[in-house]
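*** Query protein ***
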Amino acid sequence: MATPLARLLGTCLSFVAILATSSSFAAGTVKTALGAVRVPGADLEIVINVAKARKTAFHEATKQLEDELKEDMDVEALAAGEKFEAFLKSIGIEEEDLTAIVGAVSLRSIEPNAEETKVPGLLAMALAKPIKAATIREGITKAAAEEGEQVEINETVYKGVPMLSVNLDAADFAADMPPEAGKVLADLYVALPADGQAIYFGQGEQVKAAIDRMLAGSASPRSVGLKNAKALVPAGSEGYLIFDMPDAYREFMDEQAANAGGNPMAAGPMMALAGLKGAAFSSLTTDKAKIAITGDFEGPENAIQLKTMLDMGLGMAKMQLVNAAGEQLAIAKSLKTANEGNKLTISFEVTVQDIRDLVAFAKRMQGGHGGPGAAPGGAPGAAPGGVPAP
């Protein structure tokens, strides 16, 4: 069973994985540190310019919405979020201090049958103000003590860069966590390059290799596949994830299509995805968030085939949603697919009102009251689209 400390650290790492930014965001030594994050042979890179996203009207509106919807949030999730926020403050990091993070991994280099689980990847945060290794160590130790636990943290220095190794027992992680993930977290290292204004997270070997690249002023170049995937990201996007499809993944899709037993609904998507060369997930935020997933395929037939399957599935899903909600939600109306040549894009938009509508819809479903304007217990609820409830 997972201990509270293990869950807290897992939440921290999940938060780090979601927030990411490009290596061109910051200047000076922070830029060098972030530029060294990309591992050789990387085929997946995640990026979010946190500082840029924080300045958007959508972000400001969602911050105000948090208090409005707090009573509707999952109690455990809310408690975990508050605990994590308290942990960050204990080590000297306020929300506005987080400016940037880069993440990269080489999926094709992972050996699933290896005796030791090694993940050639790294995550890094950039901060507006420096932080010290001793402060992080004290914060983790204090968090462990509050849970009645002890944790071993070793503080070292590698080529002038402070490092921490957090020794965790893989047996303490959640029961549903894959054993490989537990082994990776049990070998967690934290380093503080750029005079503590950047933080590296990863396995020891990967953290040290990134420090070597940083000190040498070098950066692993993007592969041709990643460059092509980056070209799929709309200009101005503050966040993106780009993916260069490994051959092994395409071979797996081919096998799945062959094993579909002639079922076109099962074989069709697999056959189309077997032709996927790369993809990009992006977010462009103004007063709303524009989300897009674009795939680049071997040929237009792959894109058309997958679009046909998606349109069919999305059409059915929208009909079911209308039956459940009593009307079509605005976010569902914005969901669409488009193909051009070898490329296929799925896109949708999210506004603050969409979030309100989705929360109201979820409450109606939990209360067993379908149809617009109905809330649990039959009480009037917020109507969609900003229209006051009767």
Notes: The two ends are 48 Å apart (CA to CA). Residues 28 and 194 are 9 Å apart (CA to CA).
